[in-house]
Give the backbone structure.
Amino acid sequence: TLETLRDTQGNAYALKEYDARYQVRALWILDPTRVLPVIEKDSRELWYEVQGEDGRYYVHNMDMIHVKHIHGYGYQGISPIDVLKGTSEFDRKVREFSLDQIDSAITASFILKLTTTVGKEKKEEILENFKQFYKDNGGVLIQEMGVEIDPIEKQFIDTKLFDVEKITRARVAIVFNMPAHLLGETEGVNYASMEQMSLEYVQGTLVPIVRQYEQELNRKLLIPQERRRGLYFKFNVNALLRGDMKNRGEFYFKGIRSGWFKPNEVRALEDLPPEKGGDKLYMSKDLFPIGEERGEPNEGNQ
């Protein structure tokens, strides 16, 4: 919910609720339109002015979780929807114009030229015979002496108008810091593998968002004693970068043989149950320190 509000309103706020021991037990999401960051005159500290149901409240910045989208002036974010208002309005008007072109397009298919002037009844008779002959003969026409038939070339809509959709997608991708190919834009996209596409999305889009949440939660949800113990919040995005079976197998193989993956850790990543003996780190015996002869004991074993 916080992320949805951040991506639509530009700001997302959650008020901390404490228990009797002054430990955070809940985060209450607030309506971002009712919250305004303000600076206290004397201390110059950041507070949040909340328009509640029963009046106005002021909350210190350490008691409020605040994540924003496009950072604006001061301490408040800018709504990406507001940034895209001009783009969406332009896109809407172009689409309306295209529909008007279709509605007002010429519906006739031929121009029937007569060499002589005829009366109204004769025109209607000629036209009716023309339509009936065209219908009865599968669209084939016979041009008689004194009559010219010219087809009308139809172009309901300028094909260049479809480029507007590309412009809209490109602007949306820029505002939300997303790769354009995730919005359906394939022109100019050239990736060797799905891993490269996922890597661009994770590094360029998700990591900056995740980092903002991590910093906010680490600062406002951990007490000094917890920080000294080394506790911190961290979102794991590695699962989004999992490659195909071949690449994953090679990655796990190197990790286990090099001693930085336990077999059960790999099994957990693959949604498999742990096995006995899988909680140990293993090192390949064909590795030994540079500069030492094979079979000679090192200083630690003498």
Q: What stands out?
A: The mean pLDDT is 79.
